[in-house]
Give the backbone structure.
Amino acid sequence: MARPTRRGRAARIKARTDAPILYKPTLNRNVGPVNLLSEEGIEKIHAAVLHIVENIGVEFRDASALEDWRKAGARVDGERVRIGRDLFMALIGYIPDGYKFHARNPERSVDVGGANSIFANCYGAPFVYDLDGIRRPSQLADSQNFLRLAQMSPAMHVAGVLPVEPQDIPVPERHLDLVSSALTLSDKPIMGSVTSEIAARDTLDMLRIVFGEEHLEQNVVVTALLNCNSPLVWDETMLQSLRVYAAANQPALLTPFLLAGASGPASPLGGVAQLLAEALAGMAYAQMIRRGCPMVLGVALMGVSMKTGAPMLGTAEPGLMNLLVGQMARFYGVPWRSCTMWSGSKMADLQAGYDSANAMWPVLLGGCNYIMHSAGFLEGSLGVSYAKWVQDSHQLEGFYRFFEGIRSEDLEPLLGDIAEVGPGGHFLGTDHTRENPFVVNTLQNNDSYEQWLEDGAKSAELVGAEEARRMLAAYAPPPLPEETAAALNEFTQSRRQLYRA
């Protein structure tokens, strides 16, 4: 006699994945933010920031930037720039408190700033942990796969541009493949290349092909990630790219990469004061290029192991520092960015889960607006795992639901249900239960042990890899007008030939 087919987890996944994707809009947080600092504490950090920029100074290793600062009235000694507090605060005051981030599909556009949060793709890892869990150098095909996965993930708002570094593409032309891939494989907001001034200009030219010159001039259609060399150095490459994007009224995430105990003090208060001075100095400079250009205060925080010097992720002190940065960003009236879902683990294991969750909670509770690396990172951000990426992207939907907060509802019908069910009954059959299911992560196994064994006793890593394979097989590119696609291809090919000449 044939054994009856059991409709379990596989059937639930099929029912979910056969349905159209219900994309999540910008998360409007109704939980938090957590404020750790008193007014006195805020003023203490602010005073430290002003002391750093005014008396210690920040190096701008770029001749044009030094001349701009000199003309603005800052004290320039070699490459060291000391910015008077009045000039510093006046420039910060031009930065908008938020902006709309336009996608080529208007339905995917999102809002940055205020009580809004968005989740963005991973960025820049040189290695991948592939669908078989094998660690290897990343390639363009991997970057394109993670863009496809981002397109298909309901709560991943920003597809990005550089999920992993494609080691098989020469650096001078790498940005051409990455930006064109982001614009064709996804219709969500994208990020821009910053590897050189040429790469930044090419990015904007490709965006003009897709969005049009006038639309780009009047709207934010890209956000670039620019890293400060902590402590207290902005280098020429980052500043050249910053000028390109700011001149076009496109924002950047001005981000110190602070290793507490190494490139910054092993102190939450001291480290936050330093990174604020670094980020805000870059944001202030952008306002000299174009007044009122949107900018984002960036944060990339890690602790450092005193045993090995290696970065530690998901630990308590960086979490506290994210809460402090969030409160200070609100004090300065600027949106802020941070990093999450990363781990020092070398596989998608229990440590990876702990590290990722411990990184995400303080960032969201701190009111972060632009949340980078929202899926996939392992190995201290050096590698991206397909399996973990998919598992993390499903976790985002749970975080999204939590921070939506409590929904208003009429209690009177529920009191009627309680009266009808009475003592000892159950609510499984009520209309309310059927119409208001909890958010369910279909990749998590809540079956009995026996059912789990029967289904193959699969680990979370294996389930994530299987789902990644399914998603990539089911991917369909979002529509792009043929003439736009042709113009984009013509541009990239002509530039490629130029760089190879």
Remarks:
- The chain is about 45% helix and 15% strand.
- The mean pLDDT is 94.
- Residues 39-91 form one domain.
